[in-house]
Amino acid sequence: MSQENYIDVYINKIIEETSSIKRFVLKAVDGGFLPRFSPGSHIILNLATNQGVIDRRYSLVNDPAQRDAYEIAVKLTSDSKGGSSYLHHQAAEGDRLQISLPKNYFTISSSGTHHVFYAAGIGITPFLSMMHTLKREGHSFELHYAARSIKECAFYPYLITHFADHVSFYFSNQQHRLTTRSLHDHLIGTHVYFCGPPAFISIFIKQATEIGFPATHIHYEHFTPPISSEQGEAFTIILNNGEHIKVKEDISVLDTLLAAGYYVPSSCKIGRCGTCEIKVKAGSVLHLDDFLSEEERRENETMITCVSRCSDNLLELDI
Questions:
Q1: Residues 166, 177: Cα–Cα separation, whole Å
Q2: Count of H helices and E strands in the chain?
Q3: Dihedral (C-alpha) 164, 168, 153, 224: value to the nearest 10 degrees?
Q4: S-S: 271 plus which of 106, 289, 296, 308, CB 3.0-4.6 Å?
Q5: Of 3-7, 14-18, 229-233, 309-313, which one has max mean pLDDT?
Q6: What is the DSSP letter of 84?
Q7: What is the pLDDT of residues 82-99, one digit of tens each?
Q8: CA distance 116 to 164
């Protein structure tokens, strides 16, 4: 979390939501209030794992009106590179952590007359704070939430208690699956929000676009960078000082530059915020971000280094 302001917190409580999802209650070490956050926000955890210090982003799941704690939910993944594995197997109540100030690239639209949230699995997390806010302010909303079963449905009792009139559940073990058909039922002025696995998000975005939802009414959040079949190719970048640096198949341009000692400001690391944008002097960019417009992509003058790559073998960057 270099170049980042951070807050010292400790793990006040760990709650098992499902067999693979744990909720962590974080409180300030000094006992004071934590900074306010807006619905849809996330924080970055600075974790000292066996693989070294790593940063991981997690949505805040509690009510933004709560000031004495932040709560996050973490799913243990089989391909964990340290974050979820560390929090599930090593972190304990009382442990101290460093976290960033809250950040938000997934906000509630102020122009929506009705808000519809579509969640799959751990994709429920950013919507919890949104629903608290909308309910308190008297706005219209609904949630469509897909999980394998009630047992594997994170926050099921909580959602029944607080949002029973707003939520529809879809459990695949009961042969009740969430499909895109419900997108056809929404009235003009509705904003739709998607969060879950990449394939789930892509299918719903595609269908919402084909139905005729304006792009400004479609919102989504990826927990990981978007995937491309071309993403695995290694290539070389050339810097202003003439240095040539190889970007490996599974490493981003941003992380490659940071590892080589070049500071590049960054924040989301999933191609949403544009903080790590760098000018391109030569070469063709494979744009994988959600920040640049189609026109900016065609101009090929900049790239978002946390996710985008080279579409051939060589990129010359203005750094």
A1: 18
A2: 6, 18
A3: -120
A4: 289
A5: 14-18
A6: H
A7: 789 999 999 999 999 999
A8: 15
| Amino acid (one-letter) located at 8 | D
Domain covering 235-317, topology: Ubiquitin-like (UB roll) (3.10.20)
- Separation CA 156–CA 194 (nearest Å): 19
- Residues 6 or more apart whose CB falls under 8 angstroms from that of 96 comprise 8, 9, 10, 29
SS3 letters across 19-73: CCEEEEEEEECCCCCCCCCCCCCEEEEEEEECCEEEEEEEEECCCCCCCCCEEEE
CATH of domain 114-221: 3.40.50.80
Please state which of the four CATH numbers 3.40.50.300, 3.30.830.10, 2.40.30.10, 2.40.50.180 is assigned to the domain occupying 6-100. 2.40.30.10
Contact by Cβ (8 Å): 114, 100: no
Instruction: Give the Cα separation of 198 and 192 in Å (integer).
Output: 16
105, two tokens:
């690239």
User: According to the model, what pLDDT value does residue 222 have?
Assistant: 84
d(CA 179, CA 119): 11
Q: Give the model's pLDDT for residue 2.
A: 47
Give the full edge-to-edge strand order of the sheet including 141-147: 167-171, 141-147, 114-120, 190-195, 218-221
Per the structure block, which two tokens stand in for 181? 């058909």
Return the ∠ at Cα 48 (arms to 95 and 12), rounded to 5°.
20
Cβ neighbours for 191, distance < 8 A, ≥ 6 positions apart: 109, 111, 112, 114, 115, 116, 217, 218, 219
Q: Would you say 307 and 276 are in contact if contact means Cβ atoms under 8 Å apart?
A: no
For residue 105, which of 221, 269, 245 has the smallest C-alpha distance?
Answer: 221
210 CB contacts (<8 Å, ≥6 apart)? none
